[in-house]
Design a protein that fits this description.
284 residues; alpha+beta; D-amino Acid Aminotransferase, Chain A, domain 2; 9-stranded mixed sheet; 29% strand; binds N-(5'-phosphopyridoxyl)-D-alanine
């Protein structure tokens, strides 16, 4: 089919139906790999350097050598972007420890598997931006290396499904009485006009959008405080937001089925959302 999606696998661009990986790939058998999702506006990747830096951090964290230089990654990602028929994209890339006889220990002399695809970037609908979205809450029961962007996502998958089961967009998690993040987003709160963000420790993914949001808010003159957030503080916050590469920033207006923070996106959200849109436009 002429309009079939072109993907990248181990150095080759090919139609998605021809991209094949061994059933022994450690990504399939163990979820032994890492990934990135890079938003692309008007065919230009947003914060590419930061995504490549986090990729290196995740690879180091699972002791897997980076198969490419940053220059090589940039070139392949740009080529993948050019090969798609749409301008706003979400590039997904993953590196796994490759195919090997099943044994938990790292295999020797095996080339990693590198896969990339790019889908249309589907941002939240206007109504979701204007009215905010619903979340549910749960205890964070994932492992203690949530700072690594690994393809082993079962904990996150089960959390996300809790939200879907209750017609919500995300599950906001708490560990030992403190806010961590959501199943596929970071979570920020606003208290007395100050954005309060949980620290980037081993319990959350160091979100590129989290960083972008804090930087943009700082430039717009909104005060910031990076510190642990208790469950009580989060539930009593003036505003609560989600951030991710595919959601940008989104206000939470329903929590566990009840209206939250007046049931409308707050003033700090509206200000930072506008500044975020401007920063995106400036980056194009
Ligand atoms: N998810 N926390 C988790 C657990 C995530 O999976 C993500 C992103 C984030 C936000 O990170 P960033 O701002 O860098 O996108 C936080 C991506 C989008 C995904 O898995 O599809």
């Amino acid at each position: 089919m002429a309009d079939e999606q072109t993907v990248y696998l181990n150095g080759q661009f090919l139609p998605i139906t021809e991209a094949k990986v061994s059933v022994l790939d450690r990504g399939f058998i163990y979820g032994d790999g890492v990934y990135e999702v890079v938003p692309v506006y008007g065919r230009r990747p947003f914060r590419m350097a930061q995504h490549l830096k986090r990729l290196q951090y995740s690879l180091d964290g699972i002791r897997l050598a980076n198969p490419h230089t940053d220059a090589h990654w940039r070139q392949s990602i740009n080529e993948l972007i050019e090969r798609q028929p749409f301008a706003d994209q979400a590039v997904y890339l993953q590196v796994t420890r490759g195919p090997a006889k099943r044994d938990h220990a790292f295999p020797k002399g095996v080339a990693p598997t590198v896969f990339m695809m790019s889908n249309p970037l589907v941002l939240p609908a206007r109504e979701q931006v204007e009215r905010g979205v619903a979340v549910v809450t749960a205890q964070d029961n994932r492992w203690l290396r949530c700072d690594l962007k690994t393809t082993s996502l079962l904990g996150n998958v089960l959390m996300r499904q809790l939200a879907v089961d209750r017609d919500a967009v995300e599950t906001v998690m708490f560990r030992d009485g403190h806010l961590t993040e959501a199943s596929a987003s970071n979570v920020l709160i606003v208290h007395d006009g100050v954005i309060v963000a949980p620290p980037k420790d081993n319990l959350i993914l160091p979100g590129i959008t989290y960083d972008a949001t804090l930087e943009i808010a700082d430039r717009a003159g909104v005060p910031l405080d990076v510190r642990a957030v208790t469950h009580a503080e989060a539930m009593g916050a003036d505003e609560m937001w989600l951030s991710s590469s595919t959601k940008e920033v989104l206000a939470i207006t329903t929590v566990d089925g009840r209206a939250f923070a007046g049931g409308r996106p707050g003033p700090v959200f509206r200000r930072v959302y506008e500044a975020f849109q401007q920063a995106k436009a400036d980056a194009k």
